[in-house]
Write a structure and sequence with these properties.
34% helix, alpha+beta, 3 strands, 3-stranded antiparallel β-sheet
């Protein structure tokens, strides 16, 4: 009897909260993060379509079979200077005047207070125009073979005819010295130009330690 009453009392007492059945909504667990060692393949990369350079390549190849549209040759532009400056400083000054130093193949002092720039004639208008912007006038009347530019004190009292050979020798020395600083193909192009102009003799190249000119086969 006592056991029946005890069971009845227990059933009437409130149950602990942790034993109550609550209607908690069910949440789906988050999917597991992919492992770096997962065997699944990476997402495909989107590749941009490549440009078709076939037309450009054909234009370059076709240009090889065309004649020279630009003039060929070289020229010395003579510009007055107040003092003789190092060549590196001269190139720096040209750069500050917005003249591309690469247009100047060589710089040499042809006379007292006179500097000469060896350029390709394609860039003659460009360089001259930039010099004119700063009121720098090139001397077109100068002949580098003129005997009057000889400043050797030993030849001051000599006649003009006696100065012709020294003037030519001095000019050729500057040209040969410039050729020693050139590399192919500039060397071959400049040397061929002065040979065809009659200024230098191909046989004299070896005496200055210069390589013989390359002969193009036809």
């Amino acid at each position: 009897m006592f056991s029946y009453e005890n069971n009845l009392l227990r059933s009437r007492q409130p149950q602990p909260s942790h034993l109550l059945h609550l209607d908690v909504p069910y949440h789906q667990p988050f999917p597991p993060s992919p492992s770096p060692n997962s065997a699944s393949p990476p997402p495909p990369k989107v590749t941009e379509p490549k440009c078709d350079n076939s037309q450009l390549s054909l234009a370059v190849i076709a240009n090889q079979f065309s004649s020279f549209a630009e003039p060929t040759g070289f020229k010395l532009i003579h510009v007055p200077v107040r003092s003789r400056l190092p060549l590196q400083q001269l190139r720096s000054n040209l750069r500050r005047l917005h003249i591309n130093p690469r247009r100047i193949l060589d710089i040499q002092y042809s006379d007292r207070n006179l500097v000469s720039f060896l350029i390709h004639i394609v860039y003659e208008a460009e360089v001259s125009s930039q010099l004119n912007k700063f009121n720098i006038t090139a001397r077109d009347d100068l002949n580098p073979l003129d005997p009057s530019i000889i400043r050797n004190p030993a030849l001051v009292n000599e006649t003009i005819d006696c100065k012709i050979q020294p003037a030519r020798k001095s000019f050729l020395h500057r040209i040969y010295t410039a050729l020693q600083r050139f590399r192919a193909p500039n060397y071959n192009a400049v040397a061929n130009f002065f040979v065809q102009s009659g200024f230098i003799d191909p046989e004299d190249l070896a005496s200055y330690g210069l390589a013989p000119l390359y002969r193009y086969r036809t």
